[in-house]
């Protein structure tokens, strides 16, 4: 009996072989497969795994899973790499997969398949998914260096640290989900960011702050950025799934929101729904960072 994942994979294979899905064209994402066929995420992942094993699809960074360039009659002109992959190859491929499809599309089996090696062989490179995620996050820090030299002044330094991290989360929407505030990973390239803020708060207004206070000031900046950053991946995935910009989605949703925002019970919300307010993740980041640092200024005795 043909399994559900095999049946769905056969449907997509037929669309590729018929030319309906040409090389470079996006194929249904795992979430679209879930929505269209009413299956579990694991089943949807098996569909794409099967297509990758056939060489019919490939992950393209910033786009998602697309029909492979050489897909003809169920095979591609390429194949697995001629030489054994390195740890860097594993991490780069994992990052490209997560960039394109989110963490939901990332698995040890998936990475091994894309590298053309047995799944168990992958554990020679990393001990498991957690180590792989940590290496991915460390690479995000490595490719998002702080300026050298850093600006003087605690506020200027806090701003550049926060904005550097925010930009990294835009490039890698999954990274905020991986970053832990309660059980921080050991990240060799990430320690520079922590050190930069700890040193910024070392001597403020001629007084030396204790380490406990400096750690709380530092981690609170990170938490603000991470807290907003976790919204980047679902927003990115939603745009891929339905093809709508955030503005287009809001235009469609606004009538329903206005219908429930009874001005007699919710006058302030009703007024807001009738006003063109530029409320985005970027605006929330800028507003939140500014207000957080305003509060720091009061705490540090620098407010006028």
So, the CATH homologous superfamily of the largest domain? Winged helix-like DNA-binding domain superfamily/Winged helix DNA-binding domain
The average pLDDT score comes to: 86
Total domains: 3
Spatial extent as radius of gyration: 23 Å
The SSE string, one letter per element, is: HHHEEHHHHHHHEEHHHHH
Q: Helix- and strand-based class?
A: mainly alpha
Q: Strands of the biggest beta sheet: in what spatial order?
A: 1-2
Under the CATH scheme, the architecture of the largest domain is Orthogonal Bundle
Could you explain how this protein is built, in words?
The chain has 304 residues and is mainly alpha-helical. The protein has three domains: 123 residues, Winged helix-like DNA-binding domain superfamily/Winged helix DNA-binding domain (Arc Repressor Mutant, subunit A, Orthogonal Bundle), CATH 1.10.10; 106 residues, Tetracycline Repressor, domain 2, CATH 1.10.357.10; 30 residues, no CATH class. It contains 15 helices and four strands. The strands form two sheets. It has a two-stranded antiparallel sheet. The longest helix has 19 residues. It is flat and about 70 Å long. The N and C termini lie far apart (75 Å). 29% of the residues are buried.
Topology:
Elements: H1 4-17, H2 30-37, H3 41-53, E1 57-60, E2 64-67, H4 87-101, H5 108-115, H6 119-122, H7 129-142, H8 154-171, H9 175-178, H10 191-200, E3 203-204, E4 207-208, H11 211-229, H12 232-242, H13 246-260, H14 267-273, H15 281-299
Helix pairs in contact: 1-3, 2-3, 4-5, 4-7, 8-10, 8-11, 8-15, 11-15
């Amino acid at each position: 009996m043909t399994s559900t994942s095999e049946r769905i994979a056969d449907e997509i294979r037929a669309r590729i072989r018929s030319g309906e899905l040409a090389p470079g064209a996006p194929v249904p994402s795992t979430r679209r497969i879930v929505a269209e066929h009413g299956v579990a995420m694991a089943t949807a992942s098996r569909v794409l795994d099967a297509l990758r094993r056939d060489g019919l699809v490939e992950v393209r960074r910033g786009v998602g899973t697309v029909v492979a360039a050489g897909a003809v009659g169920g095979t591609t002109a390429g194949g697995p790499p001629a030489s054994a992959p390195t740890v860097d190859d594993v991490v780069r491929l994992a990052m490209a997969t997560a960039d394109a499809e989110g963490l939901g599309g990332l698995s040890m089996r998936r990475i091994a398949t894309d590298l053309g090696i047995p799944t168990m062989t992958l554990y020679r490179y990393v001990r498991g998914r957690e180590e792989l995620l940590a290496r991915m996050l460390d690479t995000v820090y490595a490719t998002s260096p702080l300026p050298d030299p850093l600006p003087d002044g605690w506020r200027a330094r806090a701003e550049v640290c926060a904005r550097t991290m925010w930009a990294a989360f835009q490039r890698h929407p999954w990274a905020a989900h991986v970053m832990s505030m309660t059980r921080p990973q050991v990240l060799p390239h990430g320690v520079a960011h922590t050190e930069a803020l700890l040193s910024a708060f070392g001597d403020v207004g001629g007084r030396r702050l204790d380490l406990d206070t400096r750690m709380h000031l530092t981690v609170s900046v990170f938490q603000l950025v991470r807290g907003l950053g976790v919204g980047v991946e679902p927003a990115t995935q939603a745009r891929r799934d339905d093809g709508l910009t955030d503005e287009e989605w809001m235009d469609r949703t606004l009538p329903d929101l206005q219908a429930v925002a009874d001005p007699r019970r919710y006058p302030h919300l009703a007024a807001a729904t009738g006003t063109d307010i530029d409320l985005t993740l970027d605006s929330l980041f800028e507003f939140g960072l500014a207000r957080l640092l305003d509060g720091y200024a009061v705490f540090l005795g620098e407010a006028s």
